[in-house]
## 1
Amino acid sequence: MELTRRQWLLSALALAGCPAAPALPAGLRGGIVGPSDLRGHQVRRRHSLPAPSLRWRTEVAILGGGISGLSAAWALRRAGLEDLLVLELEDAPGGTSGWAPGPVSPRPWGAHYLPVPSQHQRAVCTLLSELGVLQGFDAAGRAICAEEALCRAPQERIFYKGRWYEGLYLRAGASAEDLRQLDRFHAEVGRWVRARGTGGQRVFTLPSALGDRQAASELDRMTFADWLRGLGLTSSRLRFYADYACRDDFGLPASATSAWAGVHYFAARLLHPDDRPPEVLTWPEGNGWLVQQLAHPLGDRLRTGCVVLQVHPLVEAREGAEVVFLHGEQTGRLRARHVIFALPAFLRRHLLPPAHAAPAWLEAFQYSPWLVANLTLRNLPVPPGTRSPVPGFPLCWDNVLVDSPSLGYVVATHQREPPPPPDGVPRSAWTWYLPLGEGHPAEQRARLLQTPWQSWVRLLLQDLGRAEPDLAARLERVDLYRWGHAMVRPVPGLFTSGVLERAAAPLGPIHFAHTDLAGMALFEEAQHAGVRAAEAVMAARGHPFEALSS
Amino acid sequence: MQVPLLFLTVFVIATCGLAYELVAGTVASYLLGDSVTQFSTAIGLYLFALGVGAYLSRFLERNLVARFVDIELAVALLGGCSAAILMLAFAHSSWFRPVLYGTILGTGTLVGLEVPLLLRILRERMEFKELVARVLTVDYIGSLAASLLFPLLLLPRLGLVRTALAFGLANALVALWSTWLLGEQLRRPGPLRARCAMVLMVLLAGLIMADRLTALAEEGLYGDEVVWARSSPYQRIVLTRNRSGFQLFLNGSLQFSSADEYRYHEALVHPGVLAAWRALGRPPARALVLGGGDGLAVRELLRYDSLREVTLVDLDPAVTQLASSHPLLREQNGGALSSPRVRVINDDAMHWLDEAVRRSSSSFELVVADFPDPSSFAVGKLYTTRFYRLVRRVLVPGGVLVVQSTSPLFARQSFWCIVQTLRAAGLAVRPYHALVPSFGEWGFALAQRADDAPPPPPARPALPPGLRYLDERSLEALFVFPPDMAEVPVQPNRLNNQVLVSYYEREWKRWN
Ligand SMILES: Cc1cc2nc3c(=O)[nH]c(=O)nc-3n(C[C@H](O)[C@H](O)[C@H](O)COP(=O)(O)OP(=O)(O)OC[C@H]3O[C@@H](n4cnc5c(N)ncnc54)[C@H](O)[C@@H]3O)c2cc1C
């Protein structure tokens, strides 16, 4: 008896940290909701197409309704160029910044925040000021933003050995040596904030193309983890902090991320070496809010449910290009004078004419898969004897666990109060992020697609259950989104080998835009890529515009 | 004797055994925080105690069935009452940890005795390998059942005290039933059954009085008799009574005491009404109360016949229901919430204002913000520039906002932070204070939309009859601040920094 019970309890303990979560709670609902894999895989189907029944025409065809595609459309429309069409595969725009309405609150399926920009980020500042979010600049040049769009306090906490602490760097119990190393780290980052390139510009800035990548080429020859080790920065707290940053922003551990990208993460947004990282803008649906603002004015110029299958320049390049797409069961042809290819780089292989489909450098673009789970939880009655304040740091917007494969969870209901619950039971909405960045991408992608919903939910319960003992009792719904090619991997060599420049070069009437072109998946980079492509199109047409991308 | 029924016994025992342990772990982590440590310690100790029990079983030689029933009863009593015992111990003694670990060791030891005894009782009836396999299998399944039932069904539905008692009852029923099932090995089942009946009665009584038990535990925390208590998903609501009157607590902090709340509520409401009256040139007609679900601020507002519409927005339906239905509260607020002039809305004040501004559906001449003190981020957001800007947008030009602003004496920075925040939201502020014995020196801020207000026709605002604290002269005195409460430099409170919560925590720590 003791043995069996003991084994059982210990395995439950190992499984979940506390014995409440070995099996799935009865009545738990949810499922796998996206993306539309079937539709996505149509791009491999070049032959066996029905004869085209849709024929559309436009001046500028934008392929992909993610941030880069929508930003291209925004830049064209700002300059008065309205004859455009955006083709998007999914039923809603947004791509990796997509969102979904939810029973309690809208919630993100991908990107959830945008750091407050500084004045030199012209495109981001212009957009935010048009949206009424940006209200001016402080003396240092940092944007002043509307209070309701800034992430509310408390922002971040970290779970370590049974307790939550404020912030992302674990200060509790840090030794003098730990803190000395943290200072040293900041000093090194500060050095790169100060560094200037050959043209006098910053080495690290946003968008990164406006910096001087080559001036930090030594960083691109090693991983971020090696860089830290080389500086003698071995404190486990610091290593966790740096590793978390890489996994959070790039979906890769520090041991696989180029030191160039790691330093970029910490240095690019600081205005001067002693600056603090900017605050972040966020909404319940994450950057999905920005997607809605960008997509709404497009009206029916945004065509969702359209899978682009082929793009080829017409024989005489002056005539533009033709796009073949599938819309439901119908095939369509879209003629356009210019095309903006706002799709991930790996799709070139399937969509471009054979001569351009597989340049050798395309191999440099590898992708990490991600799993994103949206949770609906009900709030339980407050137990007797409760007194505020509660022990440990209270629930934050971003809640991170040390020693976890996941990135923890973000609370959608943190940023806006949900309406009063019709049944009297208030609920919360959380988003759990799991990057699958370790090991080989193809294997991780296979794991992502083969693992059933139940197993993911069990993993989620194990992961969060140790910090949230009543999670199983509160959980009502778990919906999963599987990103096969979530983020381009910023591996050593990507930034200074010339690949990024080559990928950004236009192909006749076809211009390229996507966050991939920066080697990092970020709103600022996606927007820059879209605006830059739009400006190239306008320049080619001799159409006047206010330059935002340089 | 039917073998399957015997295994049902094992199943129930196993389920209960694990449940007691979950109860102990949960109580410990609720009350002590640090859930992982509490849970692991509880589990470790419990396992150890199971071993102790198993070892002790060798000293039981005769009358095994009778001993088994006794042990069942002991488990039922100790385990069943464990939650109540622990909560009482937490409230009433400084010995909580010894009691906690004692309860765990005791229950564990008794549970550890069960299965070895049962195996010995059944040894004769079945082949040994069969017996061990089956008993252990069922034991295993029982544990699983408990681990699922406990967090999913019982804890949310019954609460801790009742859940433990329910498992105790199941244990005692098994004991009673065993006197028949294993009856042939018993010489005199009569006294045993009587004991079973007694234990069953104790547990049943406990189940019926579970609320009373919880209240008893809370009286230890509050120091007075608890007359009503309930948990909503938002807060723990407790009503206590002593010689001076009755008191309302939310999450353990005092909201009012019937003995002197008139001072607080007269000071909260009347200066604002008079200021609005002066600015409008006539008595105000539309008022909004945010928070204040106890209905006491509304009672003061209803003294003015001019106020035709009073809207009350409070988050928690449990509080407004209590205020409109509990006799003590109804008497205190004069049935204010049932007045035809009053509309009660249960919503988050920030959410409601946001919607009201978006639809531009409401405007008010007077707004009273009567929230609990900003001791948490959840409440602190209702004291931010964002919140006051929203209020400003539902105020008519010249309209007035009054904010209860914690103590300018005990929490001087917090008080002036609220004043500073109101100014940062574009309001003209006049701070004041009053002495409320239950709270001490208490602060308020009167903020006015001074921009583009048309010059009012002359008016002679007057206090309504029936006030006990305020008259013309005492009213003026409220606005004078002695040096020890004078303004200090502070940051305004914004949604993205919530500095007020840290001021508040730092300042009140000094006094508690
Ligand atoms: C889980 C996750 C979290 C993230 N969090 C953040 C964050 O917090 N902050 C941040 O700044 N960035 C974040 N990112 C990065 C995010 O990728 C970028 O911010 C940005 O959304 C990239 O936009 P894009 O247009 O370059 O690419 P995509 O988002 O890849 O857009 C491409 C679009 O093309 C569509 N498409 C694909 N194939 C076809 C086809 N054949 N035909 C038609 N359309 C097609 C896709 O459906 C998609 O809408 C996150 C990314 C992920 C995956």
## 2
Amino acid sequence: MITQLLAASQPVPAGPVVQWGWLTITVANLLVILLMVVVFVLALLLPFPAPREDEDR
Amino acid sequence: MSRAPTSLRPEPTEPRRRPAHDTWTAALTRWVEGLVPRGQWLPERQPVYVASWIYVFGVACLASLVVIIVSGLVLSLGGVAWWHVSTLGHFVNSVHLWSVELFFATMVIHLWGKFFMASWRGDRGLTWATGALAFFGSLGTAFTGYLIQTNFDAQWISTQAKDGLNAAGIGAWFNVMDLGQMMLWHVSLLPLVVGAIVVVHIVLVRRRGVAPPIGATEPSPPGAAAAARAAPTESPATLATRTGVEP
Ligand code: HEM
């Protein structure tokens, strides 16, 4: 319990950042944004599975 | 917003007596009945252009929101000490955090999709506006969530935010360093607000139907066939106004 509380109170390091001029962003946040753009592009390009035929109901 | 028909039920054989003075309860009943007319409740079929992954993100966002709410309720049951020290508490805390990550990622991809399709076309402006409100409401909910972690992260964020809000001149209205206040904002006030906005957003989507991609034509008023089946007495003209599509 004490060790867990101590662990919970340890600051988590912010991690590496990248900088372009005025813009500073953590690598983690940059990766998440890039991943979102990739998912967006894939959503536009990948074919959607064909719908179930239900004409014969 | 166009007025909905008062009732979708076929006229009773004995006509309902109309009171000389319309009561608010009767008016409310008619409003609730017309809110999402039968036939527009859940989609039975969709136009062909909806068969695209980009139309999945609204529902993915909604599904993440459900996981957020359920895991948040479990966190409230256990309380602060529980989510810091127990293994199960850690797990539920992580489920809550990661469903929030998924919620925001899917919400923003949904927003991009709707933006580049100009999905506010066809009388869907209010759908866009409620979406934007849901976005800003969610930002506030996520922010207060970070404030109530009860760790050094939360302490750092709250002191920075306090300075920022004071600099913006709005710091007198709420105290981001008051844990009790922020806890209540996060677990009751803001979820209620976001939940209500999302309900209105979804109701609007059901009423207006899904926006067609630019250049595509809407095949027929969404839900029109089902609505016609539910209320055969209704004229096609009313159907068209209700769904915001010109006849
Ligand atoms: C809590 C967040 C949100 C949820 C749960 C949500 C959910 C949905 C769902 C399920 C749809 C049906 C169509 C589809 O999925 O593509 C929809 C449509 C729509 N959303 Fe959202 N949404 C959210 C946030 C937003 C935001 C931030 C915007 C933009 C500012 C937005 C704009 C729209 C518009 C314009 C439509 C109607 C057009 C259409 O149906 O294609 N939404 N939303």
## 3
Amino acid sequence: MIREQPISFNTVPMKERLTIQRQSMPEQDPNIRNGNFLEVNLGLTPAQAVLEAQRCIECKKPTCMDGCPVNIKIPDFIQLICNQDFIGAAQKIKEDNSLPAICGRVCPQESQCEEVCVMGRRFEPVAIGRLERFVADYAMNNSNGAADSFQKPEPSSQKVAIVGSGPAGLAVASDLAKEGHAVTIFEALHEFGGVLVYGIPEFRLPKAILRKEVATLEAVGVKFVKNFIVGRTMTIQELMHEEGFDAVFLGLGAGLPRFMNIPGENLNGVYSANEFLTRSNLMRGYDFPEWDTPLYRAKHAIIVGGGNTAMDAVRTAKRLGAEEASIVYRRSEEEMPARNEEIHHAKEEGVKFMNLVNPIEFIGDDQGSVVAARCLRMELGEPDESGRRRPVPMQDSEFIMDVDMVVIAVGNGSNPLISQTTPEIETNKWGNIVADEDGRTSMEGVFAGGDIVSGGATVILAMGAGRKAAIAMNQYLKAKVGSFA
Amino acid sequence: MNLKEQFNSMEMDDILLMCIHQEQQAIELYTLAKNQAKNENSRQKFQELIEMETVHKVALQNFEIEHYIDLPPADLKVTDYLMEPVLSGNMTTQEIIILAAKREDKTAKMYQDLADHFATEKELNTFFQMMADEELRHKHNLETEYENEFLQEG
Ligand SMILES: Cc1cc2nc3c(=O)[nH]c(=O)nc-3n(C[C@H](O)[C@H](O)[C@H](O)COP(=O)(O)OP(=O)(O)OC[C@H]3O[C@@H](n4cnc5c(N)ncnc54)[C@H](O)[C@@H]3O)c2cc1C
């Protein structure tokens, strides 16, 4: 299908566009921000946003859209920015992405839309993520809800239960509420947002944004129920047969921390990244003693891993007052799955990187507290199927270093609670729920999407899976009514 | 007396019997775990391991050489430093893989010792070397699976 080119509002001649520098986003000074939890990035100014948008060369075949997992109409919203119609631009993004203020902050744009931006072949790519963030924030602060407004539909008389309030669940809720269904979100924790609240720290994603998203959904009639663990408080069968929910969406995430299975992981001072970040973010450990969640201020904190979770944990440890905070990673920096921006920010903030090092034991004192880590140095061997070179231990490379806090950030698995209480729902050998392209599970009326299906992935993919499932759920619900009629 | 010394006082038939016994023990352990396993996925994983060990046992019984021609891949040592989980019915897939990789490693060492022991007897040396390589190949596969699933550090 040939895409219609959006109306151009870019008044800058083509040649001049190439000379405009990519606009850098103002940030807090690294030496100040590593002692506070305020947001690091401060966002583009309106003038910067227009200038950045004017760098777009309006390709006939916009590869940026193919680079986006949910195919946001990037060229269209960029033209609206050129026209200074920031709220219109935000609405354009919202056609495909219900959480732009969040994705603008946390999406790995450098390996998605910006990676394939044609400008990037010779110059720097258009800063699509920064523009997305700018218009989303602008609309949130200036539109009085206009960017989210929609014609209230006729109520459908059908009830939908959404389990989990992460990006997958929120996306489903938004789309099904727009169809007139009565939507209730059940969340195990005492705040809504999934990893966006308990995992990603305030300095990267202010929680106020999420509260606004939740408030927007509440305003359109979505009910939020907290401290409700489906599978324990009530099973899926009970929700459907006793509470009368016509369909259920499972957006449970991958919240079960994985450990390394090496000696000493149960010592005091060794945390899973999940526990550590939850204590800091959700239980406001960083506000101690205002909030009663003590978190240890370490002399030397090591964080094992190289993903976004590890970066979030190490930067949190630094902000909590660790004298030294280090990343310990089995591979080299090139193989790190964390976003480049996070690695760059962590380094600026004084985080040390010990790459090609693998802990094999944590050593405790007689009180049972961790005091040291026994490690091996690694070297890179043959590449694996994905092309990442595999780390192998170097001979006679063992060494011991003093540490008084360890955070394990090697990944998460799925919680077995639902599969244990609802065996009708098929899971794979890793415990992930098996669902088709549209999120249908093996149990009638039950859909699933996000990390619980894919394993740990990204916010935009979880949201995209939620939106696909919402379409299928809407069809299912309509067919159900049809069959009654 | 360690295993290497034991070989000196054993007849070839006894050695083969010992190896078959070793593989049989693994089959029995995995069968026990499979029968106790609380979920279908673990049962499947144990079944795969039983089939793998059965192939080894048959190879020993038939003294088959021609099956194994490839050189073993690099030893990733991913599970070498991990704690050995206790075999039980409610093991996680992660624990099952660690346990199996560690067993493959131990058995590979036994076959390697046997290959070294028969260094001057070409046929036996080749046979045990191939059995050792085969165990290492399985260890490699298990560790690759482990790495792909449990060490993505995402
Ligand atoms: C520390 C960290 C940093 C990350 N950084 C980034 C990043 O920068 N960019 C990016 O794109 N991705 C990032 N990710 C990944 C991203 O956050 C996830 O892929 C995404 O949140 C998955 O969304 P989800 O809706 O599937 O699940 P989640 O966000 O995990 O939400 C699931 C929700 O379900 C609830 N729940 C679970 N079981 C039950 C139950 N039985 N009953 C009721 N409620 C239940 C949970 O409490 C949780 O609130 C990061 C992940 C982590 C852990």
